[in-house]
């Protein structure tokens, strides 16, 4: 039985919260309007005042700008709603359903690179399927990028299929 892939929150999740707040604000506006129309409160209806302010034959500049902004915002909401959530973990090779976090892959790769001969320090960065290793080499040591690539590749074998690149710089004396 294949379980669901671990995913991040969809891009549209915060839009749902925003939509709920807007619906709540509309409910408050309509409740105030109903209370004012029935005479339960001594204030005029906010909805009636807003509609009276918009009763103009020529659209003002702020209405046109607001309409254009609403169209752009609506299109952005549609794109966010149909964009699938990104995967939060990387699948590991093997028969089981095993997933590895990107931070764990970065830590394992940095440790493997630091264990390569002549490497003083290594830092890693994982973006999608590309792992970048930055290594600081000991001065005068004959460490090569191939040694670092082999060390990292051996350690990550079976964990995730990644494209690994190495940048090596010799440290000062």
Name the overall outline: elongated
Would you tell me which CATH topology of the largest domain applies?
GMP Synthetase, Chain A, domain 3
| Alpha-beta classification | alpha+beta
Write the H/E string, N to C.
Answer: HHHEEHEEHE
Task: Please tell me how large the radius of gyration is.
Answer: 29 Å
Percentage of helical residues?
40-55%
What's the total number of strands? Answer: 5
Descriptive overview:
With 173 residues, the chain is an alpha+beta fold. It folds into two domains: 70 residues, no CATH class; 80 residues, ANL, C-terminal domain (GMP Synthetase, Chain A, domain 3).
Summarize the model shown.
The protein has 173 residues and is of the alpha+beta class.
List the helices and strands and how they pair.
Layout: H1 13-38, H2 46-53, H3 61-82, E1 90-91, E2 99-100, H4 102-114, E3 119-127, E4 130-137, H5 145-156, E5 163-170
Parallel strand pairs: 4-5
Antiparallel strand pairs: 1-2, 3-4
Summary tags:
single chain; 173 residues; alpha+beta; GMP Synthetase, Chain A, domain 3; three-stranded mixed β-sheet; DUF6286; membrane
């Amino acid at each position: 039985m294949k379980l669901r892939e671990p995913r991040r929150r969809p891009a549209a999740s915060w839009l749902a919260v925003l939509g709920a707040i807007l619906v709540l604000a509309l409910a408050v506006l309509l409740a105030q309007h109903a209370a004012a129309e029935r005479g339960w409160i001594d204030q005029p209806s906010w909805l009636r005042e807003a509609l009276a302010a918009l009763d103009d034959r020529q659209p003002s500049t702020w209405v046109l700008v607001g309409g254009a902004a609403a169209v752009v915002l609506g299109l952005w909401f549609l794109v966010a709603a149909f964009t699938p959530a990104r995967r939060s973990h990387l699948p590991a090779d093997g028969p089981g359903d095993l997933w590895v976090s990107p931070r764990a892959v970065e830590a394992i790769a940095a440790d493997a690179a630091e264990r390569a001969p002549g490497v003083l320090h290594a830092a890693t960065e994982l973006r999608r399927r590309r792992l970048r290793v930055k290594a600081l080499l000991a001065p005068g040591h004959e460490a090569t990028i191939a040694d670092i690539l082999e060390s990292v590749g051996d350690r990550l074998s079976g964990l995730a299929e990644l494209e690994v690149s190495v940048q090596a710089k010799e440290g000062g004396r």
